[in-house]
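Open question from group meeting: does this chain pack into something compact, or does most of it stay loose? Before anyone orders reagents, we agreed to write out a predicted structure and look at it together. Recording both the input and the output here so the notebook holds the full record.
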Amino acid sequence: MLASFGLHALALAVLLGARLPIAVPLEELIWASGPPPQEELLLHDAALEPSEVEPPVGDADVPVELIDPGLAPLGSLSDAAAMARENGEPSSLAEGLAGELGSLIGAGGGGRAMFDSGLGDDPTAQFFGKKIEGRRIVFILDNSGSMQGGRLETVVAELLRCVDLLEDDQEFYVIFHSDMVYPLFYPDPVDRYIRPTDANKRLLARWLDTVELCLGDSVEEAIAVAQMIEPDTVFLLSDGRITGEKKMSYLLAGETRPFPIHTFAVGMGASIAGRRNLEAIAAANGGEFRESDIPAEMKDLARRQPRPYHNEVPGEIWGRNVKPFRPRR
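Structure tokens returned:
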């Protein structure tokens, strides 16, 4: 009980404590584990400024939405994370993941989303042509340097289109991976799935506009995070450039995961190895592989509004763990 309270207090501190720029207004967020859509209430009528937030004295002083942050679980280490540990990966996400995510999750438990899984036989939303099946959906998306040239713009447009078609009782979470794992609404991450309400769709679009490109690859850590929050389905978008035998072995360990992983790529061109990697990951995890070209309008958008790319020195918000690439001599 004390451990659970400590985790909740830590999550509350992360959500309402000292913030970096580009903060997500908590009062606009509709939680997945909150009341039904017709009864949903915003947390507050005015934006919460860090200086206005008083530390809670007891549960009675804390909004019910924040007393138990994470009925959708960002919780205990699962089989996937255990396998990562056996393969030499971090022994806990709090220990091994940089940034707010490690602090938010900690090494303790969380809880389960109070929703049944499964939506029946008639899903309507699609992600690059793959129908969305299940109630809890996690999108793991690449924001490494390979996503230049309109690739990231293509992914963002497809994600927004997909979320716009989700059912009211579905819930989703988004994770980016590059130099580190970036949870939903980073640098002010939330620790639970959210519903596809109009307010949340606006927040998502606003946040996706802030995503920057970073040198690095943390795809296996992103999968470990996804397994911790017990999704029904994972949609993994990557360039397929996965190096390291241990990393690939972990991604291929589909028998440790009770959910499918569908893999996707955008603008792969002649990347035979990348395509083979993503096909293998999907096959090992009961999923499918799909790829898409880059629409001309997305290439044009990337030229007109290029996103920052952190590949030489760490950034202040995005790219904090960037390690400059130095070719071997």
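Observations to bring back to the group:
Residues 178 and 220 are 10 Å apart (CA to CA).
The radius of gyration is 19 Å.
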